[in-house]
């Protein structure tokens, strides 16, 4: 399971799932490049704390996941500073909910760009170096929505279905080069963004906190438990290790039974 001496890029890693994965990697001895949005001072505090806590080199890139040239530049910067990029975790994502006939075209384009196309540009930029070293790990954070649909989430569901197909395809292309490509598909994960939705939903629906959590947010998850970011991070860490060298092209679902039906 040792990853000491490896280096990684984790997109969308300034909070939530991405930060948990970046933290787990750094704690395992991996140098990490963070990426995401936020206030400059908060981003620097996050980077500095992770570096101090783990003793690893931790960088930050403000690369915009809708801009291919910035994604490529982020990879080149990581390669220059770390010497190589062994692991990429494509986690950046956005959501928008609307009936299809009212869905703003700009929102559709942005969701597809960030949730799907960015993973293509990231893989395209890192694969040559991985091939040269005969080693690499590509982990794409999909969703239970890579397997099932929900109404009013047409762009998100389309992107996540597409991400799974893309991941399977590159897994086949890279299978003889020591490079694996896999998806992790969480259900509802307990993050600050989810927590912030609860008071508004309580007010809008006249529900208690427990009712919102069990009957709205966790309606589709038989366990009635949120997935914790640490659980997703642990799965990502395993997929990046040599223990999972023959796991490729897989969709690793962690959804409390949502997609079992």
Labels describing this entry:
2 domains, single chain, Rossmann fold, alpha/beta, Sc_DH/Rdtase_CS, SDR_fam, 261 residues, 8 helices, two-stranded parallel ribbon, 3-OHbutyrate_DH, 7-stranded parallel beta sheet, 9 strands
Describe this structure in words.
By secondary structure, the chain is α/β, with parallel strands linked by helices. It folds into two domains: 7-189 and 227-254, Rossmann fold (3-Layer(aba) Sandwich), CATH 3.40.50.720; 190-226, no CATH class. It is built from eight helices and nine strands. It has helices at residues 16-27, 40-54, 68-82, 105-133, 154-174, 192-205, 209-217, 229-240, and strands at residues 7-10, 31-35, 58-61, 87-90, 136-141, 179-186, 189-190, 227-228, 251-254. α1 (16-27) packs across α8 (229-240) and α3 (68-82) runs parallel beside α4 (105-133). 43% of the residues are buried. Pfam families: adh_short_C2. One of its GO terms (molecular function) is 3-hydroxybutyrate dehydrogenase activity. InterPro entries: 3-OHbutyrate_DH (IPR011294), NAD(P)-bd_dom_sf (IPR036291), Sc_DH/Rdtase_CS (IPR020904), SDR (IPR050259), SDR_fam (IPR002347). Belongs to the short-chain dehydrogenases/reductases (SDR) family.
